[in-house]
């Protein structure tokens, strides 16, 4: 079966997942997590990209990154991150070979309807995996910085987050409630299916818009419910 082509759309956020080779652990010690995040900070600034959300699990990485007009920026970011982490781990462990799967997965996101839902999906990974009870308890995701429990000066704030309320504290509380009511969220299945197949995270209108914009046929899926779900 042919691989689904990866689509990058300038001006839209993208959900990215990269897994360890044969799903083996990528991050074992604290230094591994810290090194990856330091490189994420460096290269997202070098390529002038915005990072809205991240989560480093033991054997895979989730990122939500805003694409700019340079279509090579995200591929170069992922190449730099993967290459540096591989060399770092191989040098420490005196090993050789690939640390990652050959291809990362990527899904352009309908900004208004699904961006916050994707950030929530990313940041709830450790909870769903049974690693922590609350997302703020997991050190290696963006959630604690988003809600003010920790500090990450390079984490970017999307317009949809700023649109939640008039003050920052009110926005934080609104986002907390949004994340807490995620149990069984119907958007999760659409997000999961989209990233697993390199498809678009959005409904039919979004698919039509992107097809017209990039001139590539994208298979449509049934629309899921947007972030206004109750």
From TrEMBL:
Coiled coil: none annotated. GO terms for molecular function: DNA binding; transposase activity. It holds the Pfam family Y1_Tnp. InterPro entries: Transposase_17, Transposase_17_sf. One of its GO terms (biological process) is DNA transposition. Residues 9-125 form the Transposase IS200-like domain. This is Putative transposase. It comes from Marinobacter antarcticus. The lineage of its organism: Bacteria, Pseudomonadati, Pseudomonadota, Gammaproteobacteria, Pseudomonadales.
């Amino acid at each position: 079966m042919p691989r689904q082509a990866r689509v990058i759309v300038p001006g839209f956020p993208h959900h990215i997942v990269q897994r360890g080779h044969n799903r083996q652990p990528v991050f074992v010690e604290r230094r591994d997590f810290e090194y990856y995040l330091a490189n994420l900070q460096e290269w997202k600034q070098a390529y002038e990209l915005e990072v809205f959300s991240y989560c480093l699990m033991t054997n895979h990485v989730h990122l939500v990154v805003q694409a700019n007009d340079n279509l090579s920026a995200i591929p170069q970011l992922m190449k730099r991150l993967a290459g540096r982490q591989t060399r770092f781990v191989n040098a420490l462990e005196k090993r050789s070979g690939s640390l990652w799967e050959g291809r990362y997965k990527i899904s352009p996101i309908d900004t208004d309807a699904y961006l916050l839902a994707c950030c929530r999906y990313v940041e709830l990974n450790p909870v769903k995996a049974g690693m922590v009870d609350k997302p703020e308890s997991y050190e290696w995701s963006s959630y604690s910085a988003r809600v003010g429990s920790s500090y990450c000066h390079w984490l970017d704030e999307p317009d949809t987050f700023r649109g939640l309320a008039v003050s920052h504290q009110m926005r934080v509380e609104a986002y907390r409630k949004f994340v807490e009511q995620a149990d069984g969220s119907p958007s999760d299945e659409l997000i999961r299916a989209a990233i697993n197949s390199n498809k678009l995270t959005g409904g039919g209108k979004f698919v039509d818009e992107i097809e017209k914009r990039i001139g590539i046929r994208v298979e449509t899926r049934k629309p899921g419910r947007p972030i206004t779900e109750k």
